[in-house]
Amino acid sequence: MRVQSFPMLEVVPLGGLGEFGMNMLAMSWADTTIVVDAGVMFPDPELLGVDRIIPDLTYLQQKRAAALVLTHGHEDHIGGVPHVLPYVDGPVYGTPLTLALVEPKLEEHGIAGGHDLKSVRPRDRVRVGPFEIEFIRVTHSMPDCVALAIHTPAGVIVHTGDFKIDQTPIDDEHFDFHRFAKLGSEGVLALFADSTNIDRRGFTGSELEVTEAFEEIFTSATGRIVVGAFASSIYRMQILVDLAAQFDRKVAFVGRGMMENSKIAQRLGYLKIPAGVQIADSEVGTYPAQDVLVLATGSQGEPMAALSRIAIDDHRYVKLQEDDTVVISARAIPGNEKAIGRVINHLSRRGADVIHEGIKHVHVSGHGSEEELKLMLSLVQPRYFVPIHGEYRQLAQHARVARRVFSGRDPHPETLLVENGDILHIDAGSARVVGKAPVGRILIDGTRTGEVGDEVLRDRRHLAEDGLVVPVVAINKQTGLLEGVPDIITRGFVMENSQELLADGARVLSDVVEASSVEERTDQGLIKEKLRTELRRFFKKRSGRRPFVLPVIMEI
Ligand SMILES: [Zn+2]
Ligand SMILES: [Zn+2]
């Protein structure tokens, strides 16, 4: 006799559990699936060959989604939207700023206009099949962030998105304690909560906290002030713009992300710049150094970003002088420490005074620390708790903290440690992992100029189809000069006239090295990125193929 199968609430985290970034979670009831967030992860800048990484999408391919719901506009939540949309048959819901940050991505991929972007406000509710999705205001390091309460036939699921508890938000949009408390008192089936900062004690602190350190910097700086920050740090931009106005400095946004996002934030009213304060990047050199504030991309040491270019004196408009002050107003994403250290070395060599988080309080995290996360657990008091957003150790620590918070409560909330791909079935009586969806990473290889669309490939497939090219370049550590003729090793990359092709490729490598400054040549990260970009362009042009290019630099 066959047992009639009743619909079950199925939740599958597809990314962001056991790793930092690419947050994505699917939720299904019968044949309706919704997806919460579609993030990317950036590869370590030293590990070249890939531009960005998104989760395996096989599960979504099989299920298809009726809606994509976005919590906020950080790349680790929206960077993968263009790649996920082909599997979404319905609207994309997000707050105005989140959707405004998604739009340029769709344009870049040539899919703007083809999708229904639905703007929502906190406390709005939308219906998608059996789900009713409610948006709840949270505070974080950028404006317009929401958590979700998803009302399902099995009960209410709360998904916090990213949050901290900032009780003095720059835009006066407060964390909605009341709503979380109300949901908690009415009964929440499961809570999925951010674990990023569980291993920090106490409270994280308000965005406002950095103001004091920057006031000191503005008071004492005699030259230009250059601040490297995330292009999404719109609160940070506002604080700096206000200080610049107060201290009679002009503000220039430098680097594509900074320019784009500051424009979007201004258009939507999230960033207010007094008249006459903003100047173009090309005007930076025309003002006395002490009258200028530059906001630049590249706080993670990305080799091609503005701050890295400035650091090696290779930026078109921003030339550092002695007495200039450079502030790195961001934390190092794990894995980027070395690249950031390299940029700081270059900046110091130019004579700049470099200030970072370790020296002054110029950065405050956007993620709640232990006490804020405990507060969320207490407010929501779910039947089941599932830590998300974090490496495994953070998820495990969040689970430990939750057990302490819940001890003595009756009924006793249950904590579940799950990983990417775990298929979780939840109802009032039980919550358990019943299977595993395909998990993994899709490496996205392409420049930012729009050739990405065709290049979404699993690395294996990429290697199988287009092969691997390893340029080997020997550079003298002292002089920065080439040692001998560069060599190109290939695997699975067979071409007619390949001897000639490889000889020409080797010449491209020599040209790249010779056209670079000594500082660039002796900087592994930078020179590798240049060699990779140029060689890829060369093979694309000459062979129409896009092999995986992994430069090897031998320092002699
Ligand atoms: Zn975030
Ligand atoms: Zn995040």
Descriptive tags:
eight-stranded mixed beta sheet; globular; seven-stranded mixed beta sheet; alpha/beta; binds zinc ion; single chain; 28 strands; 16 helices; 556 residues
Helical content (DSSP H or I, runs of 4+): 25-40%
How many runs of DSSP E, i.e. beta strands?
A: 28
If strands are numbered along the chain, what order do they take across the biggest sheet? 7-6-5-3-2-1-21-22
- pLDDT below 50 for ≥5 consecutive residues: which ranges? 447-458
Describe this structure in words.
It is a single chain. An 8-stranded mixed β-sheet has the order 7-6-5-3-2-1-21-22. 30% of the residues lie in helices and 23% in strands. It has 16 helices and 28 strands. The chain is globular. The protein is of the alpha/beta class. Bound molecules: zinc ion (ZN) (2 copies). One zinc ion is lined by residues 72, 74, 140, 162, 366.
Question: What's this entry about, in short?
Answer:
By secondary structure, the chain is of the alpha/beta class. Helices cover 30% and strands 23% of the residues.
List the helices and strands and how they pair.
Layout: E1 9-15, E2 24-29, E3 32-36, E4 52-55, H1 58-63, E5 67-69, H2 75-78, H3 81-84, E6 92-94, H4 96-108, E7 117-119, E8 125-128, E9 131-138, E10 145-152, E11 155-159, H5 177-186, E12 190-194, H6 210-220, E13 225-228, H7 234-246, E14 250-254, H8 256-267, E15 278-279, E16 292-296, H9 306-311, E17 325-328, H10 337-349, E18 353-356, H11 370-380, E19 384-388, H12 392-406, E20 414-415, E21 422-426, E22 431-436, E23 441-444, E24 456-457, H13 459-466, E25 468-475, E26 487-491, H14 498-514, H15 518-521, H16 524-543, E27 548-549, E28 552-555
Parallel strand pairs: 3-5, 5-6, 6-7, 11-12, 12-19, 13-16, 13-17, 14-15, 14-16, 17-18, 19-20, 25-27, 25-28
Antiparallel strand pairs: 1-2, 1-21, 2-3, 4-23, 8-9, 9-10, 10-11, 21-22, 23-24, 25-26
